[in-house]
Amino acid sequence: MRPRAGRRNQLVRPVRMRANAARQPIEAISRTSTDDASAELGISTENAVILRAQVKPWETTILQCPDGFRSLTGPLSCLNQYCGSSYHRSSCGQRSETLARWAAAFRSCRVKPRAMNSQIDAVLGLPGQVLAWWQSLSVDASAVLVGVSGGADSVALLRSMVGDAGVPDLRVVVGHVDHGLRGEESAADAVFVEQLAEALGLEYEVVRVELNGEDSEEVSRRSRYAALGQMADRHHCEAIVVAHTRDDQVETVLHHLLRGTGLKGLAGMPGRQSLGEGPVLLRPLLDVGREEVESWLRSLGQSWREDETNSRTRWTRNRIRHDLLPVLERDYNPQVREALLRVARLSSEALGVIDEAVSGVWDRCVLEQTPSVVRLCGQTLGGVAEPLVRALLMELWCRQQWPRQSMSFVHWQALAELITTGTAMDLPGGVTARRNGTVVRIERSAAGGE
Questions:
Q1: Distance, CA of 114 to CA of 300 (rounded, Å)
Q2: Which domains does the chain have, with CATH numbers?
């Protein structure tokens, strides 16, 4: 969120937390001016506005809490106890929803005790973390399709979204894609997912896809998302929810780095991703690790399926997971996972600035856009800095849903140069680019889209 002009909405330099600082955040937010609350809590004025908006609906009830709750260093554990009684369950609403609102509110603060996130997660549990994520993102969806493979991550995602502690007022449909690559094991995965959906009282659909002998990671991924998208349309779902975890994010960023990616690749997987005109793609578990997922499932007594191909090092991602990351942690940097996640976060922030600049150029340079053809104005792009041209071309590939995995920096660089100096070139994925005068035509053949 960009701060608006004016003194009240300018970011305030955070103050250092003292031992007795931020003792009464509820009163500070609800009873004082935004500027005073900002100074007292050591957060930006902008975040004070956000926090105040989140606090206001709960002000009357929360101010009756024991004083211990009002300490910023222990709010959620006290709220957990306070909302435990049947009386306050009715007055506060669902306990998990109350906790999730406060998790979202306190996470919006720029400055807080270092242990706050771990404290929030410990009190909320996985369903509360998912609900807090959902509310902080303001997801506008009444029905979602949850992609469930049967593995621990997707089973945990499904279990955390449904039931009393799940996301309220949401119709959940279970979708399973059977690639048929493991014979009887694949069929058993599908049966497991069907039985789980039935036990939870949920709608479900299982789809079998044929890969025609192409079992590469990229082909499998494309076919899976295409099938999930079709299922979402059939069940009138506004979003597809998948179970990528923090560990998946680490592996993705490292994989992109090894391929020589740009900022978009270094940013990793976004929590919310547009899939063109279809449903939006959501990833609520990007801040949750695999160990936490499996521990929570064991606490429920919930089983899951194991895919033995995940241990095979034939595929690059598996080699990164089982071979490269352990070596990097052991011999180079024990905190390499946190370092990669930090790179992803910083890259995402920089990418936000670039995306805004791309949006400003897009409407002026795109002359025609169909699913297979895009025509660009070379004259307009000729006056744009080359890094921004590359960023616009990458955005074009995303909006067209053309595969970017085979596009290296050399390809992006050559395509950006073609805008002003080249004539024609062939690109991976059946894409061709031709310049005719000041118009650049980029087209993907039907064969390339298969």
A1: 29
A2: 7-123 (no CATH), 143-307 (3.40.50.620), 370-449 (3.30.465)
